[in-house]
Amino acid sequence: MTAAADRDQAPDRELGPVDYIVVEWAGREPTGEALPYLMDLIDRGIVRLIDIVFLTKGADGAVAEVEIGELGVEFAIFDGAATSILDDTDIAEAATAIEPGSSAAVLVWENLWAAPFATAVRNNGGRVVASGRIPVDALLESLDAIERS
Description:
Elements: H1 3-9, E1 18-26, H2 35-43, E2 47-57, E3 63-66, H3 88-96, E4 102-111, H4 115-123, H5 136-148
């Protein structure tokens, strides 16, 4: 058993923030072009993939999960990676975000890089009371405005 596996099973395991995203491909399935970047983050211990689900939404709005084996050899790396943390309710909610005729991936990951900080905050009585994400477009617009002034 590896040290990382030992740490994962320890009752006092450090736990970093957990995020999710829904990525949509309009009218088609993913090509796998982004996979090396995700795998790099995983291999370097920056994130830990907790769950991944692929789905399609038909033109009629019907939603179906796509088996990893149906996506091509590039995606075989995720075979068996799903943990079932994402349940039917989560999938239905994610599906509301995508357009009919599209496919999507829903990913849940732990930010391992932040685990020691998050654990230290929890250990001394701190807690997250708000969090969010600034959309990249909004940040770029703000930076452009600053440069213009």
